[in-house]
Amino acid sequence: MFTAARLDLEYPMSLGVYDQYAGAQEVVDYLADQDFPVQNVEIVGTELRSIERVTGRLTRGKIAAAGALSGLWIGLFVGIAFSLFGDRNQLGFLFTTPLLGAVFGLAWSQIGYSTATRHGSRDFASVNQIVATKYEVLVEHAHAARAHELLAATPRKASI
Description:
Layout: E1 12-18, H1 21-33, E2 41-57, H2 60-85, H3 90-116, E3 124-140, H4 144-152
Antiparallel strand pairs: 1-3, 2-3
Helix pairs in contact: 2-3
């Protein structure tokens, strides 16, 4: 039977702190290879920082084009649905609904432009990410002595 993993350890003890996640992962992998009960180990990312990567400038024209294109696709979908299930003027739906959708998308995007750019104080697009700068390997206190013993005897001690 599958049991849900607990994310907290009772009285965790540190096995080490690593600058890269790969180093912490290597420690846990080594312990797993030694038949250590790794369900009593956790890797904790610490010293978090936020990284914002600027991907480009937002202009009224770019927002307008994106809104119009989005509206066009929605209008085309609606037009296809109307033409498939309607009983008259099917061809008219295929032409008018994408155009109406594009106009609606264009208008709606311009209404949202000032909100998206915070009235011009943020006229760029970006993506955000939270990353850890340190990774600490923790072990349940009851298994700490065995984990330290295994890690002390590792032939890969230079990298771990």
